[in-house]
From TrEMBL:
It comes from the Bacteria. PANTHER family: REGULATOR ABRB-RELATED. Keywords: Membrane, Transmembrane, Transmembrane helix. Signal peptide: none annotated. It comes from Achromobacter agilis. This is Ammonia monooxygenase. It holds the Pfam family AbrB. GO terms for cellular component: membrane. The chain crosses the membrane at residues 7-24, 87-105, 148-167, 179-199, 206-228, 259-284, 291-311, 323-342.
Length: 348
């Protein structure tokens, strides 16, 4: 049994790596993530029984979280403070999307209110699934909705930005510039402690936010232990893409085609609104429009941060948008559901 699992993991890693290398050859955007994601998803939907272990995704998230934290120099933090207003608007925009998505899913599918609500909230997929389980919603539909949303955003946004030709508009250089062996070892140890602490405390996105907080505190204090070697971000992207693609199963598109179509329509509408909001926020912020659009897109922290990092589009600002949005949505989604459910019960 153990040997069988080992072969499934090795097979999954090989497929993800092949997908990434093919994407590099094809010059598609974010090749190490998108190539791994697309080929892994295609083979999983095709019935190939490979596997991606949880430590691989945790490792990918650790890479993203640590590399993001290294961007937060004192000067950058001051720049983020000047975007506090647009960031708050981004939080409220995410909440408005939840209401819109709930209305769409209630109108065009057979799911109940609570399932539609948790499926539409733009928070972390695992956090929304946990809330859905706690309130008795259909976890399978909630998980499917977030998988479709993340897939569509991750695949479409980089291609749109590549076609737009906006890469490099807002480059931000991370704090440490050189790799130091001892410093790197200490950085790895401290950020892993941060991730473990966040996991023990059951905080959202522990392997992104825990390492990011530790690295951010070090960088903001002027403590530059080491930069990450150039190949590490590529490995992180590969693991993220592999883990995202591994979520899909042979019956994915056959299970609830009407529900998936409604979620796709909601996601595309949300993306269009995010592009419009990003353009409007440019009147309030000095950040480029593409950076503001990335900050308001309904994607995950890790995926949107990778997009900003690779395309050099204001990594700290995009990260600040998504971290605050995710924390806000996770905090308010449960209490808001209780209020809305009580009003529905009164009016029934």
């Amino acid at each position: 049994m153990v040997r069988n699992i080992g072969w499934r993991v090795l097979g999954g890693f090989a497929i993800a790596l092949i997908g990434a290398l093919l994407a590099v050859r094809a010059h598609i955007p974010l090749p190490w993530m998108l190539g791994a994601l697309l080929l892994t998803a295609a083979t999983r939907i095709g019935g190939l029984g490979t596997a991606c272990p949880r430590p691989a995704r945790n490792g990918g998230q650790w890479v993203i979280g640590t590399s993001l934290g290294l961007y937060f120099t004192p000067q950058v933090i001051g720049h983020i403070g000047s975007n506090a207003g647009p960031i708050i608007v981004g939080m409220l925009f995410a909440l408005a999307l939840a209401f819109m998505g709930t209305a769409i899913l209630r109108r065009y599918t057979d799911v109940d209110f609570k399932t539609a609500w948790f499926a539409s909230a733009i928070g972390g997929a695992s956090e929304m699934a946990s809330l859905a389980e706690r309130h008795g919603a259909r976890i399978d539909r909630v998980a499917t909705a977030h998988s479709v949303r993340v897939l569509l955003v991750v695949v479409t946004v980089p291609f749109i930005f590549q076609w737009w030709g906006v890469a490099g508009l807002d480059p931000t250089i991370p704090g440490p510039r050189e790799v130091h062996g001892a410093g790197l070892a200490l950085l790895i140890a401290l950020t892993c402690i941060g991730g473990t602490a966040f996991m023990k405390l059951r905080l959202p996105n522990p392997w992104v936010l825990g390492p990011m907080l530790v690295a951010m505190m070090l960088t903001a204090s002027g403590i530059e232990l080491s930069a990450l070697p150039d190949y590490v971000p590529k490995v992180g992207q590969l693991f993220i893409g592999w883990s995202l693609g591994d979520r899909y199963r042979p019956d994915f598109f056959r299970a609830a085609p009407r529900f998936i179509a409604a979620v796709a329509a909601f996601t595309i509408t949300a993306l269009a609104l995010a592009f419009g909001l990003g353009a409007l926020l440019s009147w309030w912020s000095a950040a480029p429009i593409p950076t503001l659009i990335l900050g308001t897109t309904p994607g995950g922290i890790a995926e949107m941060a990778i997009t900003a990092k690779v395309l050099q589009l204001g990594v700290p600002v995009v990260t600040a948008f998504h971290v605050t949005r995710m924390v806000f949505v996770v905090i308010v989604t449960g209490p808001l559901y209780a209020v809305l459910a009580a009003r529905q019960a009164e009016s029934a």
